[in-house]
Amino acid sequence: MKDYLNVGGKIAIVTGSGRGIGRGIAIELASYGVKVMVCDINDETGESVKKEIIDAGGVAEYCHCDIMKIDDIKNVVAQTVKTYGTVDILINNGGGGEPPCDFDTITDERWDRYIRFNLYSAFYMIREVFPYMKKQNSGKIVNISSGYAIGGGDKCAHYASAKAGVIGLTTSIAKEAAPYNINVNVIPVPTTDTPGLREADFEFVADEIPLIPLGRIAQPLDIANTVLFLISGAADYVTGQIVASNGGKRMLV
Asked: Residue 87 in 3-state DSSP?
């Protein structure tokens, strides 16, 4: 029988994988035989995901990583190579926003912070793993953006701008990486049922569901399964693409 995915034994870094979408991605990849480097700024949750993967029979290690710090990014890549020998897959999941705010109240400091948190971090991670993927003439990179990057979002101009930048980063690097058989794609994630969403504001979800043809918001597993496809052998001819797993919600008018 053929192996449709062909991901067993591959080495993946998943940033921000201590909880939420990142946790879902790390666990799903590990369940298919991917060796995962869990990394997060929260050591307690990161170690918990590592244990969860190992207890389920998977392979995982944990490395502390604040994606706002270049030294931490360099360290997590170095530790991954030291532990597993290389890096085959990078999932740039780390990032996030803040409670809604009017664009004209966004200070310079907050603008800079969220651009760095979401866009700079993805660039630095890609730049750090690229030499290993280039040397082995293969690699898969999936960047996590947001539906707000395409359709806009109320009161989150800094976050939406940064995530739009992630899409531009993806499509540009995909062209440069293609000669080395490195695939680079991006998922503009929709509203997803994560602990962060429930802690912030879950009430607006009831208004959003009627806009989604499939009748529900996303679960982390929905995003994880899209990632799984994009890092698999089934997606070897897919690069530079915006793959929106959003239940059919229209993001462009």
From this structure: coil
Among 75, 26, 78, CA closest to 52: 26
Q: CA–CA distance from 195 to each of 42, 184, 201, 202 (Å)?
A: 14, 28, 10, 10
CA distances (Å), origin 21, targets 71, 173, 191, 228: 24, 24, 11, 13
Annotated active-site positions, please? 159
Between 48 and 104, residue with greater pLDDT: 48
Predicted TM-score (pTM) above 0.90: yes
Residue 244 in any domain: the answer is no
- For residue 204, being part of any structural domain is answered with yes
pLDDT in tens, 146-185: 998 988 877 889 999 999 999 999 999 999 999 999 999 9
CATH code of 177's domain: 3.40.50.720
Residue 253: pLDDT band (50, 70, 90) is very low
Give the structural domain span for 73: 11-235
Domains of the chain: total: 1
